[in-house]
User: Which sequence fits this backbone?
């Protein structure tokens, strides 16, 4: 009874005379059930529906309220991330390292096409020049990134008039060594020298080798270069040097 009287005294004071509090109205005169009405009012507030159209929305967490300091170390794990949540833009450049790739993860479909250039066919090229000359068509231009570059002479693939793909050194008469030089150049820079040579006592002589014996590997600086095969006849005149039905292939590895 004392409790009831205390509650009645409180609710009949100036606080209720001024305004309603959380939707609770002052007691009517003679209202003996006011205590239960107060309890029911608080119960209604606790279970109030804040869904769309049912009152003001309740903002549980405001924008940018939860920062790094509010997260425990390791709090965001795999289960907290939605599928496809991490986009390419969120990955720092150069941060997918070798250690992050499983063995065999990079397939051929993910590799760029080989950086290669192939020349046209040399045909039946021959010269008696005693200074270096370019072999017809055996020239390509390639833009490289600084990885190793492989130069090689290969068969034309279609046979050609002679039916062979070779490099040769020959003389028509006399007794002297049959010798010729071949070289790969990058612009005006000599990359490598190759020689065909053998002694013959007299008469006609021809020294022939498959064109594929001419090959060179080196590492350039990044840039765009023109590569060629050049040849020279050491004695000229009756001594000629040639390339038959071959192509120049240059590939950055």
Assistant:
């Amino acid at each position: 009874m004392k409790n009831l009287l205390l509650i009645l005294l409180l609710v009949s004071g100036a606080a209720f005379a001024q305004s309603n509090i959380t939707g609770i109205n002052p007691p009517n005169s003679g209202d003996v059930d006011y205590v239960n009405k107060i309890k029911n009012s608080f119960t209604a507030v606790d279970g109030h529906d804040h869904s769309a159209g049912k009152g003001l929305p309740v903002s549980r967490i405001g924008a940018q309220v939860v920062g790094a300091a509010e997260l425990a170390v390791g709090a965001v794990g795999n289960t907290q991330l939605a599928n496809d949540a991490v986009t390419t833009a969120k990955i720092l450049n150069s941060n997918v390292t070798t250690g992050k790739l499983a063995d065999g993860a990079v397939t051929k479909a993910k590799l760029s096409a080989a950086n290669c250039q192939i020349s046209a066919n040399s045909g039946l090229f021959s010269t008696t020049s005693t200074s270096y000359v370019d072999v017809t068509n055996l020239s390509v231009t390639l833009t490289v990134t600084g990885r190793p570059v492989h130069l090689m002479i290969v068969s034309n693939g279609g046979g050609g008039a002679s039916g062979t793909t070779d490099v040769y050194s020959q003389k028509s008469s006399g007794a002297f060594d049959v010798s010729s030089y071949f070289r790969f150049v990058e612009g005006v820079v000599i990359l490598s020298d190759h020689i065909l040579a053998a002694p013959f006592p007299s008469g006609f002589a021809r020294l022939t080798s498959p064109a594929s014996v001419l090959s060179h590997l080196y590492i350039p600086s990044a840039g765009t270069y023109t590569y060629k095969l050049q040849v020279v006849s050491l004695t000229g005149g009756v001594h000629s040097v040639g390339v038959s039905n071959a192509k120049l292939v240059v590939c950055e590895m």
